[in-house]
Design goal:
The chain has one helix at about 85-90, and strands at about 20-25, 30-40, 40-50, 55-65, 70-80, 95-100, 110-115, 120-125, 130-135, 140, 145-150, 155, 170-175, 180-190, 190-200, 205-220, 225-235, 265-270, 270-275, 280, 285-300, 300-305, 325, 330-335, 350-355, 365-370, 380-385, 390-405, 405-415, 425-430, 435-440, 445-450, 450-460, 465-474. The strands form 7 sheets. Strands 1, 2, 4, 14, 17, 18, 19 and 20 form an 8-stranded mixed beta sheet that branches. A 6-stranded mixed beta sheet has the order 27-24-22-30-33-32, with no helix packed on it. It is elongated. It is mainly beta. Among the domains are: about 20-80 and about 165-190, Immunoglobulin-like, CATH 2.60.40; about 85-155, no CATH class; about 300-335 and about 380-474, Immunoglobulin-like.
């Protein structure tokens, strides 16, 4: 236990009367608050408590809403040397303290002396970094004894100068006249972030429902009560330090406050801004979920893709076996984020969990994937897993070197459907260099300079073979 006294800073102000918090994808936020000051005429010090402990001090702005010319700020300081046991003992080194301890025989003893070393200390190295080391307490008693690492309650005579109970902004300002003054305070702070997450539930046919959520995390060191909450989605650049129709309902927030307003979005510069249409309290050390968007009756398609060469990068033909063997098709679920399809709202980047109901009506998870910021009218393509009953086998049947940089190869891809329902499989063959398919048993589409796409329609329990010969120069 540490006993002492603490004197309040001059002209400390009360909590914010209103606040607005804009949270960015990159894990920081812009805070704007209205504070009421009671100023006196002339030069004075004003203290503002309850600001975020992770505030970026070079971002602080202050202006008078009562009269823009009513005062001038001469100096701004941010104090964050907070009161705690370790900090007090570190600053009390060299001072007289009292140690209250219980001896092994049960006798209580009060020892008075000079604190020679605190239990912990913050030290630095040549690279400028700091770290905490444990030294153990050293106490020199009044009778000359040296106690090493004694245990018990420590009593100090006073709190060391400069220590405060809350992070505080201090302004040295000159006011033209005395009286109340409403001031807008703005600053950037780290420790606030938001992420979007989505739940897509398939009906097993061709329709689905989508629910979007915002997950807010506040570790800034401050609580924002009844704040106007805004979320900015987009890739905002920051300088790093050296080291109508349809069923989409954007205003609905089911399960959160009985259907009170949710988020409304607007385009801002090259980003999208989402504003919660009701006040929200963001408590420090709290995670909060808010409804973002909702859509139903969304048409989707399932796509099976055999893409054996996708992960190999640039492929130079050789006698080795690359992209061969037994293959499991990738399973994708795709839909268009359009108004006609029951959506049409820009979707911030986040995780999408895909579910489907079984025959009993229970929801089962199929997989999850990440999406980037997706504008309206763009296609969303989700990788949810690998097929179980549709398989493929790829072989290279022939390899001929026709010249130093000229080869001829023949490939065989057998696609098998072991299901009781028909399936369509997309087979992508990646080719690099100057290539030309000279023989084939099935038509293909050239998707781009490096991809030939074969589409295989399979009946239940059917298998088909793709056979083609390609000549490549490089």
């Amino acid at each position: 236990m540490i006993v002492g006294c603490f004197c309040a800073l001059a002209l400390a102000q009360g909590p914010a009367s209103s606040s607005e918090v804009t949270v960015y994808n990159q894990g920081f936020a812009l805070v704007k608050e209205v504070r009421s000051f009671e100023l006196k005429e002339g030069r004075q010090t004003v203290a503002v408590e309850d600001v975020a402990s992770l505030i970026e001090t070079n971002s602080v702005g202050i202006k008078s809403l009562t009269d823009p010319d009513s005062f001038e700020v001469l100096e701004q300081n941010y104090q964050y040397d907070l009161i705690n046991t370790q900090a007090i003992l570190n600053k009390a080194v060299g001072q007289r303290i009292k140690l209250l301890r219980v001896l092994p025989n049960g006798v209580k003893e009060t020892v008075e002396g000079t604190l020679m070393s605190a239990p912990t200390a913050v030290v630095g190295n040549e690279q400028g970094a700091s770290y905490t080391v444990y030294n153990g307490m050293v106490l020199k008693t009044l009778d000359g004894r040296i106690l090493l690492n004694p245990s018990g309650e420590v009593e100090v005579s006073k709190i060391p100068d400069g220590m405060i109970s809350k992070p505080t902004l201090l302004w040295d300002l000159v006011a033209k006249k005395a009286g109340p003054n409403n001031v807008e305070l703005s600053y950037l702070t780290k420790g606030l972030k938001w992420d979007a997450s989505y739940v897509l539930t398939l009906d097993g046919q061709d329709k689905s429902d989508l629910k979007g959520w915002v997950t807010m995390a506040n570790n800034s060191g401050a609580t924002f009560k009844d704040a106007k909450l805004k979320l900015l989605a987009g890739d905002v650049r920051r300088v790093s330090p050296a080291l109508e129709e349809a069923t989409f309902q954007p205003m609905r927030a089911t399960g959160l406050g009985g259907g009170r307003p949710g988020f409304e979005q607007e385009q801002l510069f090259e980003y999208h801004l989402y504003t919660l249409e009701r006040p929200a309290t963001l408590k420090d050390k709290e995670i909060k979920q808010l409804s973002l968007l909702e859509g139903s009756g969304i048409k989707y398609t399932k796509k099976l893709i055999v893409d054996s060469m996708r992960d190999f990068g640039v492929y130079y033909p050789s006698e080795g076996t690359i992209g061969t063997g037994n293959l499991k098709p990738q399973v994708r679920v795709e839909f268009v984020n359009s108004k006609e399809n029951g959506l049409g709202m820009p979707m911030p980047k986040g995780t999408v969990k895909v579910y489907q109901r079984d025959k009993s009506g229970s929801v089962q998870m199929l997989g999850e994937d990440q999406i980037d910021h997706t504008p309206r009218n763009e296609k969303v393509s989700l990788v949810v897993g690998r097929s179980f009953d549709v398989v493929a086998e790829r072989k290279r049947l022939n390899f001929d070197r026709l010249g130093t940089n000229f080869v001829r190869e023949t490939f065989e891809i057998v696609v098998k459907n072991r299901k009781e329902t028909p399936e369509k499989v997309h087979v992508y063959e990646r080719r690099y260099g100057d290539w030309n398919i000279t023989k084939k048993n099935m038509d293909y589409t050239k998707l781009d300079a490096n991809t030939a796409a074969f589409v295989v329609d399979l009946k239940p329990n059917e298998e088909k073979t793709i056979l083609y010969t390609v000549e490549t120069k490089w």
